[in-house]
């Protein structure tokens, strides 16, 4: 079939759908975690009971993860309504109200997708969308990721059709002029990479998509693959044509089973319509894509390590040069880009380099995609033009800090990134500004911390991750990071000294210099930025044995305020897992600090009308006998 | 290895082409069938692909996904990703170690439970998260964790081999 025919067919399928009543349910991993599959089942059962034939379509994620399970009801002659947090109990209401009747149940709605409906906000005008500019997230959550016709009806594969009419050097030039830089972390100019690879001698050549997404707090690549996998596939086909490769691999982590499943279906559909395989759209260009599932190692995301993994070996990085563009998979020229990088390609082909480079800043073009998590109200995904400030992302699109707490820091870029303080919230999001601030774009994970988070503990968390994930090849990365971790653990437990801070700085420089890949090269960043912006917290731990956020267990104690304890209530006694709380009925309850493991259960269960349990730091704020008991407990190792 | 395990192993291997590049997918498939990678399975894979045993062992121990011991009836995975850490993931892990009397990475001697830490399971907005089997337990606290374990424990207690 030729492309216009495929397009016509897809468009008429889409139009027929719009002329019918249908229900979209977000069943990406985030939706499922919130119970979307139960909601789906409830809809199917209720529709069957009511003998209605509305189609129920499983879609991906709109990026509003905090509102999952998210349901959209679309009616031919009416407006589309989006409902948040749809539990199975709400389903009969919605079916009765809007599927069968004319009541859009606006009191349950997040908003409408058409303008001027009184009683519910117009979703594109919600404050978060004023700052967003959705390009590659545009269709996520609105189209069926398992139906290629939905993608085509939204303009999909036009980019490929246009690219196949161009010469490979023209394509590479267009990508170059767009200013697209790699979204895998380092921000290398994509056009240049394609050019190197196309000029490289050797054949065959390979195209690889890096979908390893190892940052333990980022999930945008997963969302894209679960919500709109075809755009990644289309980008890879165009790349293959441009550099002269006939084979592509998508390296995806096995921890993403749903993304793997949806990708498999998507690849099958692309083959069926002739976008993959032999003689693509009659162009005599051939291209195949194979999936390779990762086996869980953060370092596998590094490009040379990733190729070792595809070859079935231990995934350790090797020195560059030679760069993968010259010697990659099985020693052949290999182009490797991130999921998001490929996602932009078809749009640049379709709309032109000028369109893309009109978005963003001078040096960083296009949009940036972030996952928002941590102590933020509206956790999820956001896509904003490069240059948007952190302030706008956190407060306007992310809805600000949860539970009325105050902002402390934002961590960007995962284990290679840094923690930035409030004073830097005006920093624009682009590769260079973030690097200047000591952080980096990295994966695009953005995690907000509030007053209850300890910065030394956070630094220690990331280093702990790195020591577990270091492949062990470079001594500085393997042992240096361990030394840093030990020093941080000492500080957290009140055993730190001021000279540890100097040692940390020195070690950080050595590790940066002595590591082959960026895993070690950027591993000190979380420590360096917390030391730079939150030095007082380190000093409090060392000099005052105090954890200001009351997180570090050795420096923090739970205490029952005698004059607030109700005496008759026994909630804490009954729930304490180590039987550390004593007190007869009618007596004030008391924590035996020697046995307390700092789990916080007593604070959780103490009824709010008494509010008798508090956290204290330093532990010397306890009555002297209790403080001594706490010391004994620590010496016995009760804190694990 | 039991006889059924051996049969399953031969079946998986028989479907695979003996190419070096197939090592990881093959190991993944064996683990999917058996739940872990017994020593004999690794040896068979080495001879099937005609590579040194140490290379197979190296790969198996390099990647987090591979396991050398079978899992418990209920496999408990605690998320230790960034968002979960910031909301007390470590306390949940400690609570589970205390409750199940095993350390992270271990399986209980009666194979009732096994405990593992994982990095970000992708539902950060529900942090801290624990997976028991495929079931997600959102917004955990040490106290809630204890309560959530009760039905799983009852299930184990009610197994025929445990009632006498
Ligand atoms: C330790 C480490 C982990 C990495 N993890 C990823 C990853 O998960 N996904 C990714 O796209 N790039 C990752 N990278 C970057 C890749 O090495 C490479 O730069 C990238 O895939 C190139 O694609 P791009 O040009 O589209 O950015 C990682 C790098 C390092 C050093
Ligand atoms: S950090 Fe636990 S789900 Fe993401």
Structure description:
The complex is a heterodimer of chains A (640) and B (164). With 640 residues, chain A is α/β, with parallel strands linked by helices. Chain A has five domains: 10-142, Glutaredoxin, CATH 3.40.30; 151-356, 3-Layer(aba) Sandwich (Rossmann fold), CATH 3.40.50; 367-453, Ubiquitin-like (UB roll), CATH 3.10.20; 456-543, de novo design (two linked rop proteins) (Up-down Bundle); 556-635, 2-Layer Sandwich (Alpha-Beta Plaits). Chain A contains 26 helices and 18 strands. In chain A, the strands form five sheets. Chain A has a five-stranded mixed beta sheet with strand order 2-1-3-4-5. Chain A has a five-stranded mixed beta sheet with strand order 11-10-14-12-13. Chain A has a four-stranded parallel beta sheet with strand order 8-7-6-9, with helices on both faces. In chain A, a hairpin with a 5-residue loop joins strand 12 (407-412) and strand 13. In chain A, helix 10 crosses helix 12, helix 18 runs antiparallel to helix 19 and helix 20 packs antiparallel against helix 22 (525-533). The longest helix of chain A is centred in the C-terminal third of the chain and has 18 residues, at 475-492. The mean pLDDT of chain A is 95. Chain B has two domains: 3-62, Arc Repressor Mutant, subunit A; 74-162, Glutaredoxin. In chain B, strands 2-1-3-4 form a four-stranded mixed beta sheet, covered by helices on one side. Chain B is globular. The interface between A and B is large, with 60 and 45 residues. The complex binds flavin mononucleotide and FE2/S2 (inorganic) cluster.
């Amino acid at each position: 079939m030729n492309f216009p025919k495929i397009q016509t067919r897809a468009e008429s399928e889409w139009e027929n759908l719009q002329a019918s009543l249908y229900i979209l349910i977000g069943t990406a991993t985030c939706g499922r975690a919130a119970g979307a599959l139960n909601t789906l089942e409830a809809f199917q059962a209720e529709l069957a009971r009511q003998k209605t034939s509305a189609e129920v379509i499983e879609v991906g994620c709109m990026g509003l993860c905090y509102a999952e399970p998210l349901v959209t009801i679309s009616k031919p002659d009416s407006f589309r309504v989006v409902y948040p947090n749809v539990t199975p109990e709400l389903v009969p209401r919605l079916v009765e109200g809007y599927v069968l009747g004319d009541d859009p149940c606006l009191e349950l709605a997040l908003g409408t997708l058409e303008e001027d409906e009184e009683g519910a906000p117009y979703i594109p005008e919600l404050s978060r969308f004023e700052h967003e500019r959705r390009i590659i997230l545009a269709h996520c959550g609105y189209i069926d990721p398992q139906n290629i016709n939905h993608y085509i009806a939204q303009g999909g594969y036009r980019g490929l059709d246009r690219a196949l009419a161009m010469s490979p050097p023209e394509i590479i030039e267009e990508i170059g002029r767009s200013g697209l830089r790699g979204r895998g972390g380092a921000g290398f100019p994509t056009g240049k990479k394609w050019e190197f690879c196309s000029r490289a001698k050797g054949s065959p050549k390979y195209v690889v998509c890096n979908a390893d997404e190892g940052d333990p707090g980022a999930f945008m690549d997963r969302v894209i693959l679960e919500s709109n996998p075809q755009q990644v596939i289309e980008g890879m086909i165009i790349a293959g044509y441009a550099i002269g490769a006939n084979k592509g691999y998508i390296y995806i982590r096995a921890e993403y089973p749903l993304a793997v499943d949806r990708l498999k279906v998507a690849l099958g559909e692309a083959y069926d319509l002739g976008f993959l395989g032999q003689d693509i759209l009659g162009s005599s260009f051939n291209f195949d894509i194979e999936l390779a599932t990762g086996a869980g190692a953060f370092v596998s995301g590094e490009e040379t390590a990733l190729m070792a993994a595809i070859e079935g070996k231990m995934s350790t990085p090797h020195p560059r040069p030679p760069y993968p563009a010259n010697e990659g998979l099985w020693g052949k020229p290999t182009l490797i880009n991130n999921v998001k990088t490929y996602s932009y390609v078809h749009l640049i082909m379709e709309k032109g380099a000028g369109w893309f480079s009109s978005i963003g800043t001078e040096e960083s073009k296009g949009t940036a995609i972030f996952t928002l998590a941590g102590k933020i109200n509206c956790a999820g995904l956001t896509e904003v033009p490069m240059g948007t400030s952190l302030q706008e992302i956190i407060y306007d699109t992310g809805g600000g800090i949860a539970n009325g707490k105050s902002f402390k820091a934002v961590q960007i870029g995962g284990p290679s990134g840094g923690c930035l303080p409030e004073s830097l919230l005006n920093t624009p999001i682009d590769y260079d500004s973030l690097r200047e601030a000591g952080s980096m774009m990295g994966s695009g994970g953005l995690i907000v911390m509030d007053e209850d988070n300890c910065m030394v503990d956070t630094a220690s968390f990331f280093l702990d991750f790195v020591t577990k994930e270091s492949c062990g090849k470079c001594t500085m990365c393997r042992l240096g990071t361990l030394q840093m971790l030990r020093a941080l653990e000492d500080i957290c437990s009140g055993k730190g000294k001021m000279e540890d801070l100097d040692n940390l700085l020195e070690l950080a420089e050595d590790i940066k210099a002595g590591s082959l890949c960026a895993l070690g090269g950027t591993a000190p960043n979380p420590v360096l930025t917390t030391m730079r912006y939150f030095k007082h917290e380190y000093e409090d731990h060392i000099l005052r044995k105090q954890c200001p956020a009351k997180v570090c267990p050795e420096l923090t104690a739970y205490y029952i305020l005698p004059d607030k304890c109700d005496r008759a209530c026994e909630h804490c006694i009954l729930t304490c897992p180590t039987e550390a709380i004593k007190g007869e009925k009618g007596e004030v309850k008391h924590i035996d600090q020697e046995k307390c493991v700092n789990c916080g259960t007593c604070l959780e269960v103490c009824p709010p009308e008494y509010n008798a349990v508090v956290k204290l730091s330093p532990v010397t704020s306890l009555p002297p006998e209790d403080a001594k008991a706490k010391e004994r407990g620590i010496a016995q190792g009760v804190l694990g | 290895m039991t006889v059924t395990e051996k049969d399953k192993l031969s079946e998986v291997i028989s479907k695979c082409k003996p190419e070096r590049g197939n090592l990881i997918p093959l190991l993944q498939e064996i683990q999917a069938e058996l739940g872990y990678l017994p020593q004999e399975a690794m040896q068979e894979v080495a001879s099937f692909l005609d590579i040194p045993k140490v290379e197979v062992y190296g790969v198996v121990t390099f990647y987090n996904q591979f396991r050398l011991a079978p899992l418990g009836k209920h496999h408990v995975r605690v998320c230790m990703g960034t968002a979960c850490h910031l909301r007390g993931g470590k306390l949940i892990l400690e609570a589970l170690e205390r409750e199940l009397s095993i350390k992270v990475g271990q399986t209980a001697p009666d194979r009732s439970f096994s405990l593992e830490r994982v990095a970000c399971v992708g539902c950060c907005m529900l942090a801290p998260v624990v997976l028991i089997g495929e079931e997600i337990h959102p917004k955990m606290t040490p106290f809630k964790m204890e309560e959530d374990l009760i039905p799983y424990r009852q299930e184990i207690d009610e197994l025929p081999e445990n009632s006498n």
